[in-house]
Amino acid sequence: MQKILRIDSNDNLIVALKDLHAGESFSWDDDNITLVTDVKAKHKFATQDIPLDGIVSMYGTPVGKATRPIVKGEAITVDNIRHYAAPVTLEDVEPYHWQAPDVSEWSTRTFKGYVRDDGRVGTASYWLVFPLVFCENRNVSKLTNALNDALGYTNNSLKKFALNLTSGSDELIETARMFPHIEGVRCITVTSGCGGATSDCETMCDVLAAYADHPNVIGMTVFSLGCEKAQQKMFKDALARRNPEFDKPALYFLQQEWDSEERMMQTALQQTFEAMKAVKPTERVEVPLSCLKVGMKCGGSDGFSGISGNPAMGLVSDWLTTLGGASGLAEFPELCGAEGDMVKRCINLEDKKKFLNLMQGYEKTANFFDTTIADNPSFGNIADGLITDAIKSTGA
Known about the structure:
Blueprint lengths: L3 E2 L7 E4 L8 E4 L2 E4 L9 E3 L8 E4 L2 E6 L14 E2 L27 E6 L5 E2 L3 E6 L5 H15 L5 H11 L17 E3 L10 H16 L3 E8 L7 H11 L7 E5 L6 H18 L6 E4 L4 E4 L12 H14 L3 E4 L9 H7 L3 H20 L10 H5 L5 H7 L1
Parallel strand pairs: 11-12, 11-13, 13-14, 16-17
Antiparallel strand pairs: 1-2, 2-5, 3-4, 6-7, 7-8, 9-10, 9-15
Helix pairs in contact: 1-5, 3-4, 7-8
């Protein structure tokens, strides 16, 4: 089994693929390296002597600076390096020449999706329940749980175990789905909608409108209190801006118009049930990969994700976009230290500016609270070899 890996020829760090011990020697690129410390799997060691404030490189880019001299064969830790990323300006960014990969192997591949009336394709069919203010989070959860339980969508193994236990039966209790063409009821809860800046409420409404308009959503039930800043009109305006032709079933409940919360909830449940029942059954059909859009987010980074799952998803993203599909990257604060690589991949100058402004805005906000977005790696990240935020980000 291979024990070590250097990712880029310019790196002065090597990844341990298994636990290594002081005294072990390795040959790499006509160089011999003898470990002077133990190195745990997923962690890294220096390929050369690195002076105080010397640049530590991985993935072909700076990921830290030495806080004391590091000797060749020594493991890097929080005690000998700190976060560092090369400054990025638009003037310094070299043009990125992307080479489209050969996708002929998948050019005729298809997947089964739901073709919507507007031509977009969904991979699921959900009824969405959400509030316009945090005061309604409880009602959103109550309605969602009640519908999922009654309609056979609940997939809570512990709850099923409890039901079996209390019934005295050895047979697993299952509830058949009433609407096989609908895959469940999903809820979104919020932390804003009132007691803050109007711009925050508008941003929240824009996000909720994007969810509502998503091709995986077939209808929605919306709760508001009545006195909140994020009024129903604000949300409806956001939805109209996003899609002037929006015509999915939408139910709105304003609690202060009701004399009883119980009656409102019963009515909301009844009307949502009737609306779901009225949804025209849609069958999955074979569609080309050009119709597929995938979203990516952090999956729990460790010292191997940067040499396994993450580059695999990057390769799949290149394949998919070449085929005409799309791949979306979220969690921009987790790209601290990878700004240079990200800016290179932006085609348009405006996108480069937007990304840098976004990252600088996050950092400025963090600085206001006497911290930095580089203070991101968790205890588990560090224990698994992600010593600096730049190592974590560039591996993502």
